[in-house]
Amino acid sequence: MDEETKRPRDSSVHILLIGASGSVGKLVLEQALSRGHAVTALVRNPDSLDYVRGKPASENLTVLQGTPLNKDDLQKAISHIKTHPRPAVIVTLNNTAKSAQDPPPPGQCPPHLQYDVHKLLLPLMSQHQINKLVVLQALGVGSSWPNLALPIRLAVKYTSVHFSWDDHADVDRFVKAYGDDNDVQGHIKWVLVRSCMFSNGPAKEAHCYGEDGVGLPWFPSISRASVAKFLLDSCENDVWDNKTPVVANNAPKR
Asked: What is the pTM of this model?
């Protein structure tokens, strides 16, 4: 009997998944359903969910069309999970902005996509007493910056890639400050997962290098499936609550 089969029914979570059509988000969706969790996915285009296409409808999956940049759409999505005994939110958005223009040119991300989403999301979570938030971020955010490989640091500093890292950094600061200063309805337990460079392949053990990435090898990586598993594990348990774990498949040197 595998781990998912042995998991007690009352340990299931109802997850609002923001970013379900992305390369990591679709794996979170697939793994969450395989674990017996309920998922509400808020997506701009439901047809973009490859996992759903060609599969029979699942009573554990609700797909809502909308954008997390719209408060009404977020409110509707929150209403789907708020009555569950264990509601939670997982965010796997990826900002691919190429310029500071806001609103952006057609077909491009706004430069503050993730920050703007979290500014809407956290007050709604507080209002409905949803106190678990797991966010996919990146190595190099916040205190992990010195442990990002030098070539990538240079790319972040001198190319448009910096919009993504800047957005992550804004979310990092906002989530931490919100929990300290503004969460009057109940403390939100957040996990900001600082992932190393993505690779393909199956889910493997995700090794944690603290909150800063000290001891990481040169150019560490982690499979998207491993990241998805770690996000779900962090949603189910409290091991990394209010922390910023740096994760890689590379095992620490002894």
From this structure: 0.91
